[in-house]
Amino acid sequence: MDTTIFKPTTFFLVKMSNKYSPEKAKILLRKGYSYSEVAAQTNYTERSLSDANSSRWKIDYHAAFEERIEREGVSSRLNVENSFANWFVGLFDGEGCFRFRVQNEEGRSTTVSLVAKISVHDKTRTVLQTLR
Question: Do the strands 96-104 and 110-118 form a parallel or antiparallel pair, or are they unpaired?
Answer without folding.
Answer: antiparallel
